[in-house]
Design a protein that fits this description.
4 strands, alpha/beta, 4-stranded parallel sheet, GlpE_sulfurtransferase, single chain, Oxidized Rhodanese, domain 1, globular, Rhodanese-like_dom
Length: 124
């Protein structure tokens, strides 16, 4: 497995300083996000309804990024559930990830953009 030195250095610093975040800030990391989906993570498309209708990851739920915290609460999604968010480029997914983190969700991953993520996730 190939590791990137900055990611390892950041993790080590966090461990030593006691500031490890329980969310994953791997913005735009479709390879990692796809591996988590394959392990059972909930996958959520945070794009507009029109974008979702034009194509999406097969098992993805659709929740617009502005509504993600309220809809997760309405649907009773556990704050311990691993969640992968994606949009067109990763920007809206990151906004949604940060909002969920502030709401106490502990395992939220920004999967980046649809075009990069989709080919990495097979149909179930």
């Amino acid at each position: 497995m190939k590791y990137r030195l900055p990611a390892i250095a950041s993790l080590l610093c966090s461990l030593l300083c006691g500031t490890v975040s329980t969310t994953v800030q791997a913005e735009g990391n479709p390879v990692y996000a796809a591996s988590m989906v394959k392990r059972g993570a909930l996958v959520v498309d945070v794009r507009s309804a029109e974008e979702y209708a034009q194509g999406h990851v097969p098992q993805a739920s659709h929740i617009p990024y502005e509504e993600v915290v309220a809809r997760f609460a309405e649907q009773g999604i556990s704050k311990e559930q691993t969640v992968v968010l994606y949009c067109a480029s990763g920007r809206r997914a990151e906004i949604a990830r940060q909002a969920l983190e502030q709401a106490g969700y502990q395992h939220v991953i920004n999967g980046g953009g649809f075009r990069e993520l989709r080919p990495r996730i097979p149909n179930r």
